[in-house]
Amino acid sequence: MGGIVYLIELSRPLGSAKHQARYYLGSCIDLKKRMEQHQSGNGAAMLRAANQQGITYQVCKSLRPATATEARRLERKLKAHKNHKSLLTKDWNRYL
Predict the structure, then answer these.
(1) In the chain, which ranges are continuous DSSP H helix?
(2) Model pTM greater than 0.90?
(3) What mean pLDDT, rounded, does the chain reach?
């Protein structure tokens, strides 16, 4: 079964004036189920904090590699960029 890599954009920054996050990058097999986990507070800590602060979010970009292993590998490569906003305009296929 294939996986999916996804980029979530928050409606407003999360964090302090010194360090703010606006994007979350993840991978999964079932994006609908994963989003339900995030929204219920059972997903990533960053999105749990966003929920607690009333910050909404949505998937703004995704890619479905052939396998879940490839999805996880792609997620790690993309996370190495540190600046997730830059991933909005990059062609993720070139990192496969």
Answers:
(1) 31-40, 45-52, 68-79
(2) yes
(3) 94
